[in-house]
Amino acid sequence: MPSPNIWHWPEVYEQENRAQDAAGQIWAALREAGDWAGADVLDVGCGDGFHLPYFARTARTVAGVEPHPPLVARARARVTGLPEVRVLAGGAESLPLPDASVDLVHARTAYFFGPGCEPGLAEADRVLRPGGLLAIVDLDATCPPYGDWMRADLPRYDPAEVERFFARQGFRQRRVDTRWRFADRATLEAVLRIEFSAEVAGRAIAATDGLTLPVGYRLHTRRKPSGLVLP
């Protein structure tokens, strides 16, 4: 599936990435779920590789997988000089990694949006070692105001059904409240314009004072069994 925001406006999306999770709440929640220090990490749908250097600070190795060739090139340029990081072209449904080769599979607002992503879940399980963690970070459409704007543009999206889907798949869910913090008003407005339709973006801009924006996320986590699982 195309990702129009980062595909068409990668420079604006770069500023969005820099603004997101200003206090590091998502990173803290991820570490509590399963620290990757000394581990082998895979970032699925890594885009232009924004999160790869962060994982590389403590991970043993980091692999980013991205299906869109221009983003693969940008990601590879970003991690030049980081020998423990590699970027591979590929999609979530056919990961270019061997079986049981990573300890953490991370995906942030990429591919795993609910029903229909079962092939990607199966691939994540294939490349995870026993005891490894699959961590999916997604926007929480029940959390205003950002969630309200999401649902206005996606009237068929049912966040409750998405949550039930992940529960049926054996995931634990944690809600994470964050703030996006922008350097200036022009950047904030540019980001809202690439995330929403013109009408909804206009509403969002008018409703947002200052340079910060509260945005809620869901963290879905599931460990691969490390031993015999009995019925």
UniProtKB/TrEMBL annotation:
Keyword Ribosomal protein applies: no
Record-annotated Methyltransferase type domain positions: 42-136
Any one GO MF annotation of this record: methyltransferase activity
Gene Ontology biological-process annotations: methylation
Keyword field: Methyltransferase, Transferase
Keyword Ribonucleoprotein: no
Pfam name, any one: Methyltransf_11
Entry protein name: Class I SAM-dependent methyltransferase
Taxonomic source organism: Pseudonocardia eucalypti
